[in-house]
Specification:
With 230 residues, this protein is an all-alpha fold. It contains nine helices and two strands. Strand 1 and strand 2 form a beta hairpin.
Length: 230
């Protein structure tokens, strides 16, 4: 990495943003150590939290942490038999991190070191949400036939994530609405897994942080992207 990239990634941080990053990291570490979670779960959770916070901040390094996260998270999902999550991460998120890395490169604000945010017109947003809902039903039936756990919850998490990641690469504010849906569903999914004896507290904490982060970032991106409607 060159010095200009590192300088861009490290500039523009406000005290509250740094406090949020530190607090989220501390929560993951504390819970993981207390519950003696596995090193794989801890690494997946830490890199995942750093990825979503950096995405919200509009920093390209989010895709670097995202690449590490999807590999470890796929391993955890495979162990829990959440096959939709496994396929989503290895077949989709992994290559999309490379796509996002290059897609954001040409749309960075040199003054702030952040990506330039945009927003969709209401009609296009509704169309995207409708198509996503239809895909959830179809993929849920497929996962049910495979014998996966909670197929329609798994499907919702997977399908909405696919759409949200595309919107993220395109720098669109509407991604955060979908991430909120994904995070709520996935918190429930991993909460059930933990309640049934799964040793995934770091993963559950990771998705809880994702949810709070998505709400915060929707408010921020909606404000900053209001002048850049597609």
């Amino acid at each position: 990495m060159n010095q200009s990239f590192l300088k861009s990634e490290l500039t523009g941080w406000k005290p509250l943003e740094l406090a949020w990053l530190a607090a989220a990291t501390a929560v993951i570490l504390g819970l993981s150590l207390y519950w003696r979670d596995s090193p794989v779960s801890l690494l997946a959770a830490l890199t995942g939290v750093w990825c979503v916070i950096l995405t919200g901040k509009g920093k390209r390094s989010s895709f670097l942490f995202g690449t590490v996260n999807v590999i470890f998270y796929a391993v955890i999902s495979l162990q829990a038999k959440y096959y939709g999550e496994v396929m989503l991460n290895l077949l989709y998120y992994l290559p999309m991190n490379f796509v996002g890395w290059f897609a954001w490169k040409s749309h960075m604000n040199e003054e702030t070191g952040e990506v330039i945010k945009r927003r969709l017109p209401p009609k296009r947003s509704v169309l995207i949400y409708g198509l996503t809902a239809a895909a959830i039903v179809l993929y849920g039936l497929f996962l049910k036939a495979m014998g996966g756990k909670l197929p329609f919850i798994d499907s919702m998490s997977t399908v909405v994530s696919v759409t949200a990641q595309i919107l993220s690469v395109k720098r669109l504010t509407e991604q955060w609405v979908l991430w909120i849906v994904v995070d709520v569903v996935t918190v429930i999914m991993w909460g059930i897994n933990f309640a049934q004896g799964g040793e995934t507290v770091a993963t559950l904490a990771m998705w809880s942080v994702y949810l709070l982060n998505a709400i915060i970032m929707y408010i921020r991106w909606n404000r900053e992207g209001s002048d850049n409607e597609v």
